[in-house]
Design the sequence.
């Protein structure tokens, strides 16, 4: 699941594999390009997910402000979208995974549309293009 910050051009792509119980995360990784804050925050987040064996619901319950506090509020004060890009992208990936499982169980296929949230970040197909500033 790609996610991008159109404000500065940062892009993070999260790769998620759900466990057989469909509650836990079997594998998660990321790749990205952008500022140190977005890359460090994404790395710290995925380490937390793996080390604490967080469930998908645990991740969805994570708070953006707590992420900013972990990074150091003063350090990221002027770049909160960079600091939360990884978390927003991971949440979007989990929501898509959960929706795809529900749709498959109902025998329905996905209708495409870009996932969004109120943060101004862009997720899904086209996120990388939206984040790149010409």
Sequence:
């Amino acid at each position: 699941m790609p996610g991008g910050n159109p404000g500065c051009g940062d892009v993070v792509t999260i790769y998620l594999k759900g466990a057989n119980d469909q509650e836990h995360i079997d594998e998660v990784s990321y790749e990205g390009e952008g500022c140190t804050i977005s890359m460090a925050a994404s790395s710290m987040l995925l380490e937390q997910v793996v080390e604490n064996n967080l469930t998908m619901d645990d991740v969805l319950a994570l708070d953006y402000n707590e992420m900013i506090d972990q990074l150091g509020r003063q350090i990221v004060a002027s770049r909160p979208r960079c600091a939360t890009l990884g978390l927003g992208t991971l949440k979007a990936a989990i929501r898509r995974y959960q929706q795809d499982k529900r749709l498959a169980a109902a025998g329905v296929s996905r209708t495409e549309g870009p996932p969004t949230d109120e943060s101004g970040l862009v997720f899904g197909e086209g996120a990388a293009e939206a984040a790149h500033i010409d």
